Structures are given as C-alpha cells and as structure tokens.
C-alpha cells in the first residue's frame, strides 16, 4: 500500500554533539495507540522500537479474550483515520464486532503497515529512569535488558492494569479461577459446570450473557447493579461498508468534534424546551438505536441536573423492570434504585439479553449488598452471612486500576529520582493527559485527566493524542531542541480546570471506577476529562499552533 509508506522528515535530524541513545523513541504497548504511535514516529524517520508484554498486537483486544468480549463503539467509527484506503479495505462483519474479529483487524493494520518488525513482543517494561545529565531515558525490561531512548511514549492502555488478588483465600479454591482480563488463549470448557461470576460491570455482563446457555448452573455475585442498554447489532454487508467508505472524510471529521468522539452528539435540544411527551420520544428513539447514543447523545442535562437525571434514570429502570417481568426479587438486586446513582454517572454497558439470563431456573443473583463476599474457600465463595456457595469455576470480572494503573506498575522515575507511582499515590495530576511535570520527554496516551482515560470512543481520542505528541516531537527536533516538559504552572492550571469542570457534574458524587473508588487507597479524582472531546481537541490544537505554551522546550 504505497500510501502508507513512511517518509523521512527533514526536521528529525540528530544533534551530533548530544549523547546518542540506542533509540530516538521507545513505544510501550502494541494496542490501538501504540501501533499508530510507532507508525507516526517511523514516518518521521526516527529510530524507534516498540515493546509489548503480550505475544502479539492488539492491546486490550489481545488480553481481553473472555467469552462474549466485544466493543461497544460501532465498527464504522472504531477505526484508524490516517488512510482512507486502509479504512475501505477492511470489511467488518457487524456493527459491534467481537474480540476475535477486532484482534484480526489490528493484526491486519499491523501487517499492512509492516509494524510488527519494529516491536519486541513477550517483553514487559519494568522500569524507566530519566538521566537528566544525558537528557535520555534508561529503560529496563523484566528480563534485565537495559536500553536508552530520547523520547518515551507510554501507550499502555487505560484499562490494562487488572485487579487480581482481591479476595482472601483465592489460592485455596479447589476448582479453577479465571480472570476476565487474563483469559487463557486455550478454550475453557464450562459445559455443565457450576460457575460463579463476580462482577457485573460491562465485562461481567458480556461473560454472563454469553456462558448462560452452556453452564450447568450460575451464581452471579452482584454488588453494584447497572443501568444497561440492549445492543442492536445488525450484520454488515459489503454494500453497507461501501456506503460507509464513501462517508470516510465526513465521519473522520465528525468524531473529532462531538462530546465523546462518536458520530452522534447531543442534538436533541434543551430538555427544558421539550414537553414530557417530546422527551420520551427522544429517549425511546435512542433506546431503540441500541447503541450508547441514549447516554452520549440524548440530554447533557442528565450529567448536571438531578431532576433530569432522575427522569432519564426512571425511564431506563422501567425498561429493565419490564424485561425482568417485574419480579421484585430480581429487580431489587439487578436494577439500580433511585437512591443508588443516576443513569450515565457510571459506565453504561450495552448487552444482549443479559437481564433475561436471570429468568433461567439455573441462574441465581446473589445480593452482595445484603451479604458481601467474605472470602473464597476450597468449596467456593463464602458470603458474610456464613453461607458457602459451592461452585466448580469462579470467574472474576472485578475491574482495573483504570487510567493510572498501567503507568504506576512501571517504576518510572523522573528528574531528581522522583517516582510517578509515589506521586500518584498521593494525588493524580497530569498536563492534559499528555505529560506529567517532572518527567521530561515522557508522553502518555490514555492517561488520567484526558477524555481518552474513559469518556471517549478510544480510537478517536488515542489517535488525536498520538498526532499531537508526534507533532510536538517534530517541532522540538526541528528547532534543534532535545527536551520537552510540561511546566508546573501549566499542569496546575489544567488540574484546576479539570476539577472545576468535573465538579459541576453528578459523576463526582458517585462511587465508581471513574473516580478510582474501586481501588483501595487510590486518590479520589475523576480520571477522565469530562469537558468534551471536541473542546479538548480544540484546546490542545491551539497549544500546537501557538508553539506549545505551557511546555518548556530546550
């Protein structure tokens, strides 16, 4: 594909008087962001190497191969935008493809762009220490290999640090325990087994609805009930994709400006201007769409106004009650009540007949609000009421240390030996999720305080960050400079703006992984910027056109 061939940038020439590292740039991670970041840096003519813990590309779509895994951004927008030819040449099978197809797509992209040759797989980065005198990073792998690089690009993923040892006694269980985020490549036979599933977030829901037809029995341990939306997932024909291909440029532009990086936005008009009937009409239309549009393209007032939040939440609860046949025993456990939290203040899962699973006689919803999990015992799971739920298999869908976890698990040390893990254990701060003051030439994607940490169609936000980072590096090298670092003042200003924006919403009044509430001891702060993808893009693009004010380049 000639249009994808890298080109040498005239501005990317090395300074012969400076210490020469092993690489101009090192990229951590071979997911959506890491693949594109390596591609862009290689386009500049830089000497770049990527490192990936897994044995292949895909990032979250390599690791999350649990039953039922699929994304909930439509195939036409969960895409790379740097090549119209690449977009048109891949044929998705349906609106929301499953994990195996998504992993194949990312391998297709990597092969078309010849990216795998520049990645070292089965290699975990253990440490990254900045050498201020030499203006370079010293990288140490888990196998003890030591490398140096001028620029370090952390494309580690926003949901790639799974929580594992959460329950006392896990090691005593006589059966099998599977983590959804570390699901084995080999087939797992659950036919006829007594299975426990812990966790009913987006991942747990996908597992539960998928394995229900084959298990002998299933106990689902429910702590936080979820508002859910039924997914509408039609198959895509070649003609369907040809039509989407014709809209490539239109869609590419659209996703950059909307609130969440999707091709839909809050276009229904103000809540206050509509009659009750008109509001219901909007909600019904978006509910029927079977996407995240009800959450991200209905009424933004639901994020700020408690009365609006209550009305939208009541609408969704009624839909869920109806599907559960108004059974009080199920509705009380599986549907959030008016006092729990409002629709949209937690991550909203799409699902496929998830609620109907609980109507099966062999499925039980265990109410962990009434009797939390006390520990895991050899026979199964013991709850606080003393009851032992005997099972053969335990599936843990218990989430991630989101946004910050992937970076915190690497020993990253900046100027004067400062530790990112230690700093973030006190307070999580970044400069727009692109850099952290005190860590020169370290750039991040999917990091805290940017939309890409949680509130975005990930391909939209990750690519935009990669493009901004690449342009910043090219600007630096073109000026014969070596080091880029966000200033303390700029970072402080962004954190203040981030908190002011978040503080106006109902999201910060709830406990969720969005707020770090799922990780004991994690500082409380909304991990994702909630001011909108379009607004964020405008702000960072203005920084670039103005010569990167707020970033010290020397």
Brief overview:
The protein is α/β, with parallel strands linked by helices and 554 residues long. It has 17 helices and 20 strands. Strands 1, 2, 3, 4, 5, 6, 17 and 18 form an eight-stranded mixed β-sheet that branches. It has a five-stranded parallel β-sheet with strand order 7-16-8-9-12. It has a three-stranded antiparallel β-sheet with strand order 13-14-15, with no helix packed on it.
- Give the CATH architecture of the domain at 2-161 and 401-549: 3-Layer(bba) Sandwich
Q: Please report the total strand number as a whole number.
A: 20
- Name the structural class: alpha/beta
Number of helices: 17
Instruction: Bin the strand percentage.
Output: 15-25%
The CATH topology label of the domain at 2-161 and 401-549 is FAD/NAD(P)-binding domain
Poorly predicted regions: 1-14
Please state the CA-atom Rg, rounded to the nearest Å.
24 Å
- The span between the termini is 38 Å
The quaternary organization reads as single chain
What name goes with the CATH superfamily of the domain at 2-161 and 401-549?
Answer: FAD/NAD(P)-binding domain
Overall, the morphology is globular
- CATH class bucket of the domain at 2-161 and 401-549: Alpha Beta
Specify the biggest β-sheet.
8 strands, mixed
Helix content: 25-40%
Kindly report the average pLDDT value.
95
């Amino acid at each position: 594909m000639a249009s994808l061939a890298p080109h040498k940038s005239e501005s990317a020439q090395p300074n012969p008087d400076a210490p020469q590292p092993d690489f101009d740039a090192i990229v951590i991670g071979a997911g959506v962001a890491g693949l594109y970041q390596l591609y862009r840096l290689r386009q500049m003519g830089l000497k770049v190497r990527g490192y990936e813990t897994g044995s292949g590309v895909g990032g979250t779509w390599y690791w999350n191969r649990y039953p039922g895994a699929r994304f909930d951004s439509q195939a036409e927008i969960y895409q790379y935008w740097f090549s119209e030819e690449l977009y048109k040449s891949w044929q998705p099978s349906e609106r929301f493809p499953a994990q195996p197809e998504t992993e194949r797509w990312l391998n297709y992209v990597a092969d078309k762009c010849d990216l795998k040759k520049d990645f070292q797989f089965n290699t975990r980065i253990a440490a990254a220490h900045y050498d201020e005198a030499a203006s370079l990073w010293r990288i140490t792998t888990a196998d003890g290999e030591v490398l140096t690089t001028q620029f370090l690009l952390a494309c580690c993923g926003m949901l790639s640090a799974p929580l594992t040892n959460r329950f006392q006694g896990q090691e005593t269980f006589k059966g099998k325990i599977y983590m959804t985020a570390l699901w084995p490549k080999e087939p797992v036979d659950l036919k006829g087994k007594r299975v426990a599933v812990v966790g009913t977030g987006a991942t747990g829901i996908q597992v539960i609805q998928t394995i229900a037809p084959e298990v002998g029995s299933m106990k689902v341990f429910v702590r936080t009930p979820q508002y859910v939306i039924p997914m509408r997932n039609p198959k895509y024909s070649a003609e369907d994709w040809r039509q989407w291909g014709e809209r490539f440029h239109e869609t590419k532009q659209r996703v950059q400006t909307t609130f969440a990086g999707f091709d839909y936005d809050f276009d229904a008009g103000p809540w206050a201007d509509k009659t009750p009937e008109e509001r219901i009409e909007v909600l019904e239309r978006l509910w029927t769409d079977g996407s995240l549009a009800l959450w991200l393209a209905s009424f933004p007032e639901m994020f700020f106004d408690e009365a609006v939040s209550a009305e939208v939440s009541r609408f969704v609860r009624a839909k869920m009650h109806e599907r559960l046949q108004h059974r009080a025993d199920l509705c009380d456990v599986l549907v959030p009540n008016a006092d729990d939290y409002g629709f949209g203040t937690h991550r909203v899962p799409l699902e496929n007949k998830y609620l109907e699973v609980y109507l099966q006689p062999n499925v039980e919803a265990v109410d962990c609000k009434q009797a939390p999990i006390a520990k895991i015992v050899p026979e199964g799971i013991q709850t606080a009421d003393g009851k032992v739920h005997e099972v053969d298999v335990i599936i843990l869908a218990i989430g991630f240390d989101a946004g910050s976890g992937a970076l915190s698990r690497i020993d990253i040390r900046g100027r004067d030996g400062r530790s990112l893990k230690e700093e973030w254990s006190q307070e999580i701060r970044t400069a727009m999720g692109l850099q952290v003051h005190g860590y020169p030439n370290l750039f991040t994607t999917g990091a805290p305080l940017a939309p890409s940490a949680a509130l975005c169609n990930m391909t939209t936000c990750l690519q935009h960050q990669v493009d901004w980072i690449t342009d910043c590096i090219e600007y630096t090298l073109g000026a014969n400079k070596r080091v880029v670092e966000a200033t303390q003042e700029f970072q402080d200003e962004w954190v203040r703006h981030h908190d002011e924006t978040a503080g106006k919403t109902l999201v910060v009044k709830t406990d969720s992984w969005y707020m770090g509430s799922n990780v004991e001891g994690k500082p409380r702060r909304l991990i994702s910027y909630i001011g909108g993808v379009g607004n964020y893009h405008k702000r960072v693009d203005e920084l670039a056109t103005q010569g990167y004010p707020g970033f010290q380049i020397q």
